[in-house]
Every structure is written in structure tokens, then in C-alpha cells.
């Protein structure tokens, strides 16, 4: 059974940084692309970033380019999301998920095996 567990969320001030981790079990990580999404109550889950299974490509939504960095350690079956210069509007629950081959990487419908999420709060 595939499981993804996010960690690293917390509360930071505007301009602060956090590093999220996504630990994957039940599957060999190097066979899959992994994405990060975020969601606030009442809104759709939005794609933040994605990394291919072999580190060939990465995807970032426009608003996080230059501030967020996605990486993976296949030996540790873990994917990371380094977030810098965080802003209050980025307060959300952040999720990681395993991408389905051939599906749109920016849409939540293109992923399965979601984690439970980790809460990020950006506030002064």
C-alpha cells in the first residue's frame, strides 16, 4: 500500500522559510513523479510544484518561481519542498501526491495516493 506522509509545516512570519518533506513508502520512489499542492478552505487544491521521477524536469506555478525549490532523494524515498520568502496568502495545507503517468501535472486529478497534509501558516 502506497503511503505519503508530509511534515515540516508550521508558523512563520512573512518573508520566512520552511522546508517540507514528503516521505513515501510502499513503492519505489524513483518510478514516479511527485507533486506538491496546497489548499485553503473553500478553494480548489492548486498545484505548487512537481518533480519528475529522474530529476529530468521540474514544474513550478508562476507565483512561486524563484522562491520555492523542489528536490528528491530517491535513496531515502523522500521529496522536499524548500519555501522561501513566504507570504500570508500562501497560508494553506500543503499536500504531496504521486503523479499518474500521462496526466496533467498541474491538476489534482492527475495524482493519486495523497498524504494527509501539513499546515503552513504565514502571519505576523
Q: Uncertain runs with pLDDT below 50, 5 residues or more?
A: none
H/E element sequence: EEEEEEEEEEE
Shape: globular
Major sheet: 7 strands, mixed
Helical coverage, percent range: under 10%
Count of discrete alpha- or pi-helical segments spanning 4 or more residues = 0
Binned strand content: over 45%
Gyration radius over CA: 13 Å
Output the structural class.
mainly beta
Number of strands: 11
- Report how far apart the termini are: 40 Å
Multimeric state: single chain
Task: Provide a descriptive summary of the structure in words.
The chain is mainly β and 124 residues long. The chain contains no helices and 11 strands. The protein has strands at 3-7, 10-12, 18-25, 34-39, 46-51, 58-60, 68-73, 78-83, 92-99, 111-112, 118-122. The chain is globular, with a radius of gyration of 13 Å. 33% of the residues are buried.
Jot down its keywords.
single chain; mainly beta; 4-stranded antiparallel sheet; 124 residues
Give a topology summary.
Layout lengths: L2 E5 L2 E3 L5 E8 L8 E6 L6 E6 L6 E3 L7 E6 L4 E6 L8 E8 L11 E2 L5 E5 L2
Parallel strand pairs: 2-11
Antiparallel strand pairs: 1-3, 3-8, 4-5, 4-9, 5-6, 7-8, 9-10, 9-11
Quick overview of this protein structure:
By secondary structure, the chain is mainly beta.
